[in-house]
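Self-study notes.
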Amino acid sequence: TEMLSHLPLMMADGTIAGHGTPEIYINNKKVRDASELDRYRADEILSAEIITNPGPEYGQDVKSVIRLKTVKKQGDGLSGNINAAHKQSKVTSDDINVNLNYRLKNGMDFFTRGHVSDWTNYSTSTNNVRMMTSNTWEYNSSSINRSHYSIYYADLGWNWQINDKHSVGITYTAMNFIGNSKDKTEGDQFVTKDGELVDEFHAISELITKPRIKHMINAYYVGQVGEWGLDFSAD
């Protein structure tokens, strides 16, 4: 995810300059869950291609595409990695990824991946509006937002890169919150007319989301037969 921000035309908000939010493909497989990008390290990416004028095979609403190709893993047998991160600002956030892969000599992969994230956000905002009519009206507000959630993803899947022209795979993913997720906003608002207070109030809103497991299955096939390209992906 951090590597993508350094690509040409890539904006800080994840859009391509003048071409909106891109569709992302990894090894010809469409990324349907943005968290999938967090499961790859930058040194696993062999190449990145930005398409700002995508063809009709991407659909009418697609304004830009990023195609990533990963480094082909060598050898066979068991491999794995663990990545952990701690982020500190006014609040803290932590996450950890664990990946295990077993590869056969024919290029077939069996893999499992786990991702746990404990995320906290703190933000403040102010808004000041003055309207000049026959009277001077002022609207002033300030608020503080605090949110926190812990979440996990667990993958179990199979991929087979048969050769340079054919690959197939299926992945099962489970995700859920660990405990309740909370989002709380607290703020004050004031309205004055010609410097005199007309209205004021204090508001608190809190959203609590209880855990509920989500199951996802993705299957794909990408191949080339003669001059025909075949691309199938379903969730």
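Second protein, same conventions, sequence then structure:
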Amino acid sequence: MTKTFDLSAYFQERRRLVDEALVRALPGPVPGKDPGRMKEGMRYAVLQGGKRMRPLVIIAACEAAGGSAEAALPACCALEMIHAYSLVHDDLPAMDNDLERRGQPTVHVAFGHAEGILIGDALLTCAFAALTHGVATHVPAQNLVAAVRVLAHHAGVDGMVGGQALDLALGQDIHDLAALEQVHALKTGALYAAAGALGALYAGADESTVRDLEAWGLKFGIAFQHADDVLDDDQKALRAQALARVDALVDECDRLSGQFGLAAAPLRAISAWVRERAHAAAAGVKAD
């Protein structure tokens, strides 16, 4: 966080906008018309909390590119649905077999294993409908087409899904930094790359700006996952190297955001936050 930008207040206000948009975007269950409690499960998976970091990055990128928080909300809802579906599936017995998330029973515990799979599937498909729901009129049609491509690419086999597969293959004790960052770039970095690109697209930005903010998101996402590893006491063998990489990645983020001037103050505060989070955790301070 910086002396001139109140990141906490920024997060609080933008998170409120995102949460309200998600309530509107998710299908509401109607008594007697919710087979398998799918709609109830979708809302349970998405609305029970979380930092909303990916939507917050979308908004910060959109604002840096000259757009508004409100213009970015369709993309925010779409990406948060993708993130939620991935957590629903990651928690399943065939994956991580987690029984609780954020202090509540995981979706497959609350709704059933088969239902958990279907709830994740429903969120994935709903995400692509959300991309075009209530879109601001100034967003060019070609940007909306590009948004579909960006989200599909970064959420799929060459992004998040591929990262989960690689993570399962390599396990939790990786001793090579390049291999670890490959996992981080796909499993975590891909959705942050999507966030940067989507923010630019919903600001009506050109291809060059989209590429730069996509790169910002990827670098931030890798740094974010390195910080999470430190917080969770994972990948101990690479701790010192990971902290050095966080510093380098944040420097690269700041170089990319520098071209946007004062409009990128939120992006710079977010990258500073992840650096501070990583080093605080390494010093034994467990910040949120």
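Instructor comment on the second fold: Strands lie at 100-101, 104-105.
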